[in-house]
Automatic annotation (TrEMBL), chain A:
Keywords: Disulfide bond, Electron transport, Membrane, Mitochondrion, Mitochondrion inner membrane, Respiratory chain, Transport. It comes from Ranatra chinensis. Residues 10-26 have a biased composition (Basic and acidic residues). GO terms for cellular component: mitochondrial inner membrane; mitochondrial intermembrane space. The lineage of its organism: Eukaryota, Metazoa, Ecdysozoa, Arthropoda, Hexapoda. Belongs to the complex I NDUFB7 subunit family. It is found in: Mitochondrion inner membrane; Mitochondrion intermembrane space. This is NADH dehydrogenase [ubiquinone] 1 beta subcomplex subunit 7. Residues 1-27 are annotated as: Disordered. It is a peripheral membrane protein.
From TrEMBL, chain B:
This is NADH dehydrogenase [ubiquinone] 1 beta subcomplex subunit 8, mitochondrial. The lineage of its organism: Eukaryota, Metazoa, Ecdysozoa, Arthropoda, Hexapoda. It comes from Ranatra chinensis. PANTHER family: NADH DEHYDROGENASE [UBIQUINONE] 1 BETA SUBCOMPLEX SUBUNIT 8, MITOCHONDRIAL (PTHR12840:SF1), NADH-UBIQUINONE OXIDOREDUCTASE ASHI SUBUNIT (PTHR12840). InterPro entries: NDUFB8 (IPR008699). Keywords: Membrane, Transmembrane, Transmembrane helix.
Amino acid sequence: MGNISTGIDYKLHQDARPNPRQESKFDPLFGFTEDRKKKVMLASEEELYSAKIPAENRDYCAHLLLDYQKCRRNHWPMVYKCHDEKHAYSHCEYEDFVDRMKAYEREKRLMARQRRIEARGG
Amino acid sequence: MSLLKIGARTPLNILVRYAHWNKDWKPGPVPKTEYEKAKAAAKYGLLPEEYKVYPDKGDGIGDYPDLPLTSVESRDPTYHWDFPEYRRNFGEALHHKALLYGEDRYDVCMRPRFSMPMMLAWFLSAMGGSFLLCYLTEDMAFLPVLPKQLPKPGIEHYKFE
């Protein structure tokens, strides 16, 4: 039900809540004292192309997806042998999702901050 | 066939009955005089007052009669037709577009239960209501996450640590 309360919250305060379809409008380094860790793309374009990975899966976990698919191909039909690779990929996706949740919360707080500053008169 | 001598005086209905090839089923030339019209009406098994010709547009309809359009579906299903599957009697002249109005096709005589504006209003209200609901409930339920960051050349993405 969290999705519906989020949606109603967004509908009621549309100017104070981040749109789930828009990228962050703020500087990603704003408010960080130390340098943020960069996401690194480990899989190359050629690898992804030759493995026919769909465009929506070509994210920062794609190298783990490649490992998983390779393992499945090598061990077919004993795919249970690939549970390590599968778990590694799922965990990477999970961490990415948690990062997106944190990014939403950060966006929300930065928007509130901006509104406070505007209310004070710049 | 050779026993039957076909001459100028052979009745036309006999000619039609002995027709055995597509050229024999061809309609005749457009009748002009009353006598020709009566002859053509008899050929198609119609009374002279029932017989009407299509205007001669050069499309080859010729003397074929302009019959009232009745769809098979709307004919009486309990009547003892000679051909019940077509609801048609033997020798009955067909409308020249009868194939379009068979039982499995369009019924021109259909009386719809609701009027056309009523049906249109119901259709538009159902479809419009659906679109309106879709429009109003857009972003009504989502997980609190920003869109997935996909690697793009020239753009840096950062982790939360």
